[in-house]
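_Backbone structure tokens_
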Amino acid sequence: MVWADPHENVRRLEERLRAIRGKADIAVVPEMFSTGFCTDRPDLAEPWGGETCQALRRMADEYDMALMGSMIVRVFGGSGADSREIRNRGFLFAPGQEPRFIDKRHLYKHGGEAEFISPGDQREVWEYRGVKLRLAICYDLRFPVWLRQDKNNLYDILVVVGCWPTARIKYWDTLLQARGAENHCYAVGVNLVGIDGLQIAYNGHSAAYDTWLNDLAGFADGEEGTRIVDLPMEKLWHFREVLPQWKDGDRFVIN
């Protein structure tokens, strides 16, 4: 991603989509894909439905591919400046469908995210082409109860988008596998690569884990690029029939 440059990041995304046209059902980009993790720049927040959203919607239709990631948006709840709220908004733009979204639940206070951004409370599962998807944004990965499967929140693929720095990448590796294992699902994580505008380093480690925790993406440390992985649903559903451990999960309430 290019720091604080939505137009260039959207252009680069379209370049990638053009290259994989007809080869994938879903394309995933990192957290705050259009700006980088600019938590101190509320001026970069676009209205939900604004220029970047319109571009994502057009590209989903044009390339017949769902798009998942997150971006910083401004939500207008009424009149006056006090009614505005900024969100780190996760999205699914699918061909021919209305956009779906959740807002990041757990804000990374150490990185200044909570100063301008409000948390969300949507715990949703989205269905796309017969597959159930759950989206989590970066720091949400550390909170297993928030992502826990239950009979009303059963999903096939957990997609995690992040700006997770090199200094803590072992947590990303471990927690992404853990969330996939405990929820009996495919776990896909897409993370940033490079140096951002605050001189924080990111080394990627994007991954796609199957039910046996094999990484189907195979990115090397620090490798940037696009990979296509196949996630056969029949294998996952068979695995759940043979080992239906999710049925034994505890009942719980999230407050």
